[in-house]
């Protein structure tokens, strides 16, 4: 299969309009336009009955104690974990495009609804956990919410946009399912996959390098 993420070239920085957080000299970070990019895919294998779209960051600190803390840095040596930013399942086999801004157009405080969305069924992304301690933002975040890595992280983060062709029409997921649930449900049903990876950082030292 072939996947195109419009505006994002393989291995290159992700444009700010697709980000949840953008660089700010005054406050380190301010909200971005948080639009999902347009994605298109082709050459799905014979027998494809549905698609899964996901985007995740494998570079998220496993321990958040120093994240976004003045006078501290998130060490490059810290073990990293996956952070899911976008989960859409049960996308019909007839669909090969998600328009820009279709699943997200701006930061939505307290999150967007899970379940059936504009295209497919929305899973719950990890902003649900990350913002749980923020009284102005706490909520269930579903669908697309873009990059917002720690502004004091020593490494540049990578964001994998993926599409998976499946041999089933539905993964049978409902409610507040997350990225791990999607991966478990997909196991044994993936006919083919494609990926585009972009990068992003809010660390001014890395942005200038």
Automatic annotation (TrEMBL):
One Pfam family in the UniProt entry: PBP
Superkingdom classification of source: Bacteria
PANTHER family: PEBP (PHOSPHATIDYLETHANOLAMINE-BINDING PROTEIN) FAMILY PROTEIN, UNCHARACTERIZED PROTEIN YBCL-RELATED
Protein's recorded name: YbhB and YbcL
